[in-house]
Amino acid sequence: MSETKALITPPGADKVLARKRPAAPARSARQRVGRVLLYVMLIAAAIAMLIPFFWMVMSSLKDANSVFSVPIRWLPDVFVWQNYVEIWQESGLLTWIKNTLILSVGVTLLQVTTGSFAAYGFSRIRFPGRDALFLLYIATIAVPWQSYMIPQFIMLSNAGLANTLWSILLLQAFGAFGVFLMKQFYETVPEELSEAARLDGLSEYGIWARIMLPLSVPAIASLSLLTFVNTWNDFLGPLIYLRDPSLWTMQLGLNNFVSSLYDVNFGVLFAGLVISVVPIAIVFLLGQRYFVEGIATSGLKG
Amino acid sequence: MTTTAERSASSAAAPPPRRRSRLRLRNTLLGWSFILPNFIGFVLLTLIPVVTVFYMSLTNWNIFGSSQFLGLDNFIKLAGDKSFHTAFLNTLYFAVMHIPLTIVVSLGLAMLLNSKLRGVAFFRTAAFFPYITSIVAIALVWNLLFSPQYGPVNQVLGFLGIQSPPGWLTSSDWAMPAVVVVETWRRMGYYMVLFLAGLQTVPRELHEAARTDGANVVQRFFNVTLPALRPTMFFVTVMLTIESLKVLDLIIVLTDGGPGQSTTVIAQFIWTKGFEENQFGYASAASVVLFALCLVVTIIQFAWNKRRED
Amino acid sequence: MKRTTLAIAGVAVAALALTGCSGSGGTASGGDADTLTVSGWSLSSTPEFQLLADGFEAQHDGVTVKLVEYDPTDYNTLVTADLAAGKGPDVITQKEVKYLPTFQEGGQLLDVSDVKLPDGISGTDSYTVDGTVYATPYRQDSWVLYYNKDLFEQAGVDQPDGSWTWDDYVAAADALKAGFEDAGVDATPIYQHGWQSTVQGFAAAQTDSSVLDGDYGYLTEYYERVLELQSNGDQVPFNTVTANKLTYQGEFGKQSAALMPMGSWFTATLVAQQASGEADDFEWGIAPIPQADASTTGTDATPVTFGDPTGFGVNANVSDEKADLAKDFLEYAASEDAAKALAGIGITPALLTDAVTKAYFDVEGTPQDELSEFAFSTHDTYPENPTSPDTAAIQNILNDLHSAVLSGSQDIDSAIADAEDRVANEIG
After folding, report:
1. Which of C5, C97, C400 to mutate to test the interface with B (most CBs of B within 10 A)?
2. Which of A202, C36, C234, C385 is the most buried (most CB within 10 A)?
3. What pLDDT shows up at residue B4?
């Protein structure tokens, strides 16, 4: 193990390195102006990103008939907190959140574990037919879901899985996305590391678990986050499979709660959507540092 | 595929043939043992239904079981279907604008937000917000921004001296560029996340070395960052291409394919033919064409990537 | 590679075997002979299903009606999926007529020609294919003109009296606009929703044309009128309607418009929204939709309008015993008893008798004038969607025409020519 360890710089080491760098010379006036300009730009961009969300929050405080209007109104005339009260008291919000959470966490776990495991097979072990198999994985992404959604539904329905949370869990968990993402990331890990580990007597499984996984924290973090968000916000999948109100997810329950034949109560809808976006935003805010938490790989290039 | 277990295990001295075939068997078993847990789920849940699409495309399947084998009739009909031509060209038009724009914007964003700026967590989260904001809210606010008479976009253009600014989403010529802008804006946070992860694999030492050699920012970007980012770039390009060619949900809420057919794309054609007009066989044939289009582009990308790799 | 090809072939066979065996019969309710499953949507805000279920249970001892709830916007997709998997409901509610041929051609609907229907019920033609009846109507909405009496008074313009042609409608809109300006009222004379039916439905019905003809010259006059109303400010432009995602409930309910052509289902919504405060408190009425010429105007004539029925079909896979029970349900839903009950919650039943009309206007909050009663009960309603396997595809082509013309990106003549080309090219 000694050799392997020496090749991997532990997390946080780059901070130590950074500290050891000679202190930056005092910033020139030009640099300072540049910095201010950068912030002005970033803040302007952030506003551009957040405007629709802002409008959504404001609309969640309007009554049904005031949400859409000419000209558009950014702030409600009267703040209608009732929308939130209504969702909280009259809908199955807690059930929906519970189901959505089960699915999002379950799918993310399955996708990350099976995906990163399979990716190792695809990126580090050479065997006949491997590349063709991989292309097959990618190729299935290219078939639009709506074209095979009914055959898939018939199959899962015959297997007794329709109208259970299992259907969505299984449906989302084995996609090619995670395999592809992790494979690409593994390819940036220098082979010398695995070599050294092999000399140390680690099996391929060991290399995957003790070298590859720890080294791919940013990839795992982004895969987890994107999978989580996609499952959380998925509408069509739960719509087709989950009929029983006790199984509804956030998006599905909300849509059912606010709409009738010719009519959607947009005020309540946006209140629900605000409630559903907040957890994701928090997960992102807390998790985003892992995207950039790389472990320096000691300058080895495979 | 820099180095592999096989190459490393056998490169020192070429083993005798029997040992080589045993090694091959061992590697095959080993490889499959990694892939299998995902593969079982993949075959049962994705591959089997996908294969049925190919069969359906050769029939006039009506979804309730009965179907008639038609051979290539659906494809011949597609070749002469003007609406499909329109959808096909619109899809290409969208993809050709959307893919490069999104790569440039999201990579730029990732590089900007990969630094140790104050408040970087906030800016990263803000960049991701378009992806998680309700698509209805996005459609409304962008429609407003693009409004021909009162929208800020055209007010700025008017201020810049442009006499008759376009009607954007209400004009058949400008609706697609407008859709591209909104979709890029919506997706850039998503791809930024992937690029952020990819940027962590760029060895810092290389940057340092290049800096000492006197390379400027642009040179360092092209000679250090981009080559090291190649696996991620490949991933993003392939995914982005496929997703662009399959684009649907944003267009539905933003323009619903209009005005006229100016923003109708293949995915919408498939949905309409299948679920609104009950021609599932015909819709499947359109899916197969879309699939073939994606596959051709993907294989080109694979080959390109391989060549760059070796 | 060879092995991969073989593997794929194997998978294909397995796939076909798996999906192939789905056609096997069966329904959601299974073998329980006394339980009838009926599909519906948005049960909490659409009380008609529970009402019919309760009424039927009251007449049949020991029978339970179980409502199966589906999403309202994707109702047809979901019912299709369930039927394809052999898990459909016993009674299949026909939400939109244009999808009936899908179910019928797919062999999912039982022949219900032997269900006895009351005389004078409308909408039955929509469910008849080659002389065989596949569903029966219980509800028949038709398009009328809603108007805001308060806004008319404020503008000092005469209210609709049932004698309007489209020219009178345009004249009234002009007068309203001038009146609003003088009185300082912030409203537009007309709100017309973005749907294609708001133009094409009237055009087809009042020129005695059918979307199946493949000849769409009859649309010209109707589009020209709307384009002019849009450009002179009598009506909210189509681009604004779609861009701002305006809702008709909001535009009429918040008094942004004085006139609104709309389906009769809006009565129930408006009454409920005025009671809850979501809509403003104002006096309103229902008038017959303006006519193409004077021959069908006035309260002694029958105005021509359009609308599609809503009905019930029976799942072809139910047992014989269950089929009889299901047919009883269809008969009940079409009966006068059911019609009165439906009218009592603001629904427009397919059967309109004097008693039904009385029940409709007994609802608190409905307008009490004679013209409203006339508009509700007297009309010659042509189907918007003729029953044909081509209807859905043709309506999609005409919808493209609609957005191209009203957005201003194509002139009416070339848009009609394009649509005619496409119908000739793509249909059949």
Report:
1. C400
2. C36
3. 41
